[in-house]
Design goal:
Distance between the termini: 71 Å
Catalytic activity: ATP + protein L-histidine = ADP + protein N-phospho-L-histidine
Protein name: histidine kinase
CATH class of the largest domain: Alpha Beta
Number of strands: 16
Helix content: 40-55%
CATH superfamily of the largest domain: Histidine kinase-like ATPase, C-terminal domain
Number of domains: 3
CATH topology of the largest domain: Heat Shock Protein 90
GO cellular component, one term: plasma membrane
Organism: Kandleria vitulina
Radius of gyration: 33 Å
GO molecular function: ATP binding; phosphorelay sensor kinase activity
Largest sheet: 5 strands, antiparallel
């Protein structure tokens, strides 16, 4: 391409921008890889010990460097439930063969789901399910049991005993509490050794707690000034080099201008100039010959400069795409082979999160456009809400939440956009599911008065602080001050408000006895004869 020939301003700009982008990306990826590595080695799980799978199958258990796994231990049982190896003596007393069936099997697809009853007949008791994850990602129950608050089995076919001890209940919860009240995670790996004998490998490791993660994260964050300093240095050096290159490129033009100002005109050698400046040279020479039209030529030059900037911005998209592709290809080779799938999954999750963010930002800006219009349909709100809540029931149930509704049969018709209006309610629901705990109750009600239809959405979770509540519908405001996650784009509530406003309605925080977070939506009512 002619733009990238020698003495091209665009070529110079792209080269410097590419180098700058690669360096910044390298600093960022380097820091993130170090960050991920430090987190990975700080917390041990079954994946780490299974790096020694060959030694386990060969029963060379002494080759496993268990001392390098902080506070971890393991024990191995044979097909007769006898202990054939333990990393230390105390673990023999901690894990009993009779309880192996209660320990979750690693990568089996089966797991226990435990939900505590907040009220009712089994208040403070537990609903225990054994679930299997099938191919489409959904969970299928294979058995259940209801335990009272004393861990007695009152219903279900999951356990062949009348009650569970606290020790047994901890095991189905995937944890083990030692005599010093330290919490550990316990899991088992079933395999067949090289002699065809069945074995059960039980691994005990310290439970990964949010507090531990936060402490390590705080330590790592102390090093953030280092990459920031590197980026500042890179920016400074790149700026200096780019400035020097540009000045050198236009030096012939500068000399020519000075020569004209001194009354000693000097011919400009175009071969020494970037090709993008050829038109400037021609313009300059014309200006010297036609002073009467200098003002018009000046305006033309300014317009042309603006065009170059626009064209440059457009052309930079292609090299940026190439940089991203190459950066990903390079990143695929900096991790061990056994970690590649994990890293690829993480990249996929981040890519999906980025795509979701862009979709949210696009939706927000699109709806802010003054010419944006809804595609309204007349619906029976009673029927519509019944279908909507039914469609969300599984998602709500899997979170361990409950739903109550108060939607009369004789609600009048309303006009809504069948694509956008559910999104507003989804944003409210997702907020509740994201920031509240198991057992939270969600409440929907619909009522009508005069020319208004009022929709109430509420939950009895942790609530929203007064400070956040005053700004809840502003763009880029999250509810992390009231709820501890701190995740999200900060556009959910703003989008919900914009959708309701596009429907000619209003949304605001309200209050309702028994609930911590209450949103009131009001829409125009359609009267029928």
């Amino acid at each position: 391409m002619s733009f990238f020939k020698k003495k091209s301003f665009i070529r110079t700009s792209v080269v410097h921008f590419t180098v700058f982008s690669v360096l910044i990306l390298a600093v960022f990826l380097g820091f993130m890889l170090i960050y991920a590595y430090m987190l990975d080695i700080a917390f041990t799980d079954m994946d780490d010990v299974l790096k020694y799978k060959d030694d386990i199958i060969s029963e060379h258990f002494s080759n496993i460097p268990i001392e390098s796994f902080k506070k971890c231990s393991f024990i191995v049982f044979n097909d007769d439930n006898d202990v054939i190896y333990s990393s230390n003596e105390s673990v023999k007393d901690d894990i009993r063969a009779v309880d192996l069936e209660l320990i979750e099997r690693y990568n089996s697809g089966y797991s226990y789901s435990i939900t505590q009853y907040e009220s009712g007949k089994y208040k403070n008791g537990f609903y225990v399910q054994k679930v299997k994850k099938i191919k489409d990602g959904t969970l299928q129950s294979t058995g259940y049991a209801i335990l009272d608050n004393n861990l007695r089995v009152v219903e279900g076919n999951l356990f062949n005993k009348s009650s569970l001890s606290p020790y047994e209940f901890n095991l189905i919860s995937g944890k083990f509490i030692d005599s010093e009240k330290n919490e550990f995670t316990v899991s088992k790996y079933e395999y067949v050794n090289k002699k065809g004998k069945r074995r059960v490998f039980v691994f005990i490791n310290p439970t990964f707690k949010e507090e531990d993660y936060s402490n390590l994260e705080d330590k790592l964050l102390r090093f953030i000034p280092i990459p920031i300093l590197l980026i500042i240095i890179i920016i400074f050096i790149q700026t200096m080099l780019f400035d020097r290159k540009i000045k050198k490129s236009i030096q012939p033009l500068n000399k020519a201008m000075l020569s004209y100002s001194k009354g000693e005109p000097q011919k400009i050698d175009k071969d020494e100039m970037p090709r993008e400046f050829f038109y400037v040279v021609d313009t300059f020479e014309d200006l010297m010959n036609e002073l009467e039209i200098s003002e018009q030529e000046k305006e033309k030059a300014n317009a042309e400069r603006q065009r170059v900037i626009v064209d440059l911005s457009h052309d930079l998209k292609t090299p940026l795409t190439v940089i991203q592709g190459y950066a990903k290809a390079l990143a695929d080779h900096v991790v061990p082979e056994e970690k590649q799938e994990q890293y690829l999954q993480t990249l996929a999750v981040k890519a999906n999160a980025s795509a979701s963010l862009m979709d949210t930002l696009f939706a927000y800006t699109r709806m802010e456009h003054p010419e944006y219009h809804l595609n309204l349909s007349e619906v029976d709100l009673h029927e519509w809400f019944r279908d909507y809540i039914y469609s969300k029931n599984e998602e709500i149930s899997l979170k361990g939440f409950r739903v109550e509704t108060d939607i009369p049969d004789d609600i009048e018709l309303a006009k809504i956009d069948l694509n956008l209006f559910p999104r507003a309610l989804d944003n409210l629901l997702n907020n509740s599911l994201k920031y509240n705990v198991v057992g939270t109750k969600i409440y929907y009600s619909v009522s009508e008065k005069n020319d208004k239809i009022t929709i109430i959405y509420a939950d009895d979770g942790v609530g929203i602080s007064e400070e956040v509540g005053e700004r809840i519908f502003d763009a880029f405001v999250t509810t992390n001050e009231a709820r501890t996650s701190g995740k999200g784009t900060g556009l959910g509530m703003s989008i919900a408000k914009r959708i309701i406003e596009l429907h000619g309605g209003t949304i605001e925080l309200d209050s309702l006895e028994g609930y911590k977070t209450v949103f009131k939506i009001q829409l125009k009512r359609i009267f029928t004869e």
